[in-house]
Each structure stands twice: as structure tokens, then as C-alpha cells.
Design brief:
The protein contains two helices and five strands, in the order αβββαββ. It is α+β, with helices and mostly antiparallel strands. The chain has one domain: HIT-like (HIT family, subunit A, 2-Layer Sandwich), CATH 3.30.428. The protein has a five-stranded antiparallel sheet, with helices on one face. β2 and β3 form a beta hairpin. It binds 2'-deoxyguanosine-5'-monophosphate. 2'-deoxyguanosine-5'-monophosphate (DGP) binds next to β2.
Length: 113
Amino acid sequence: MTDCIFCKIAIKEIPSDIIYEDENMIAFKDVNPMAPVHVLIIPKIHMESMDHVTKKDSVLLGELLYKIKEIASLLGLENGYRVVNNCGEDGLQTVKHLHFHLLGKRKMQWPPG
Ligand code: DGP
């Protein structure tokens, strides 16, 4: 999508600090980190949100979730971490391209705000 900031990051039109990349996904540091480790993992193809995912996306999203585990290991999050998806207005999603936050290296709180 031409006006999507994360699509632009995926094609390197906007620079980012890339942690991992393959043909289907890219992981890069969040510009506004909420934890010592804060990485965003996105599919390269544009999907607006979790609410826009269809059955045909399930293999890709399964791979993406599995890869989050590997990225967590790569980043030394052996003591645990949090994976967050903000969806839609009530979920406080600000960037309308599906993404998962991977947060670590601090003790999280529950419930989230
Ligand atoms: P969310 O609220 O779940 O939609 O979070 C979007 C996140 O994206 C937020 O934590 C800040 C991050 N972000 C927004 N624009 C950019 C950008 O241009 N580069 C990077 N690295 N992160 C961005």
C-alpha cells in the first residue's frame, strides 16, 4: 500500500533498524521503545489488522509467530517476554499494518493499561 509507513519500511523506502528479515516478514526496532527490547514484527504484504486476517493468511501468520520465538531467542530474552497486538480503535492500533510488538528485558505488568 503506497501510503502505509510499514509497507515503506518493508521495501526499505523508510530506513529502520532491522533485526530479522526473510521473504515474508521483517522485524525492526520500534522507534518509540517501551522496554529495553522492543521490536515490531510485520508481514511484508499489507494487512490492515488482526481483524482483516483471512483463512488464507493462517500459514504465513503461523510462521510469523514461530519466528517471533526465534527472534526472542536471538535477542537473549531467555527470561521471558511479551508479544502484543493492538487491533483497531479500542486496541489503540496507530499504524494500520498488522504488527506484533515483542517486548523484553524488563518485568511486565498485568493488566495492561
Ligand atoms: P501500535 O500502537 O500497535 O499501532 O504501534 C505502532 C508502533 O509503531 C509504535 O510503537 C511506534 C512504531 N512506529 C511508528 N512509526 C514508526 C517508524 O517509522 N519506524 C519505526 N521503527 N517504528 C515506528
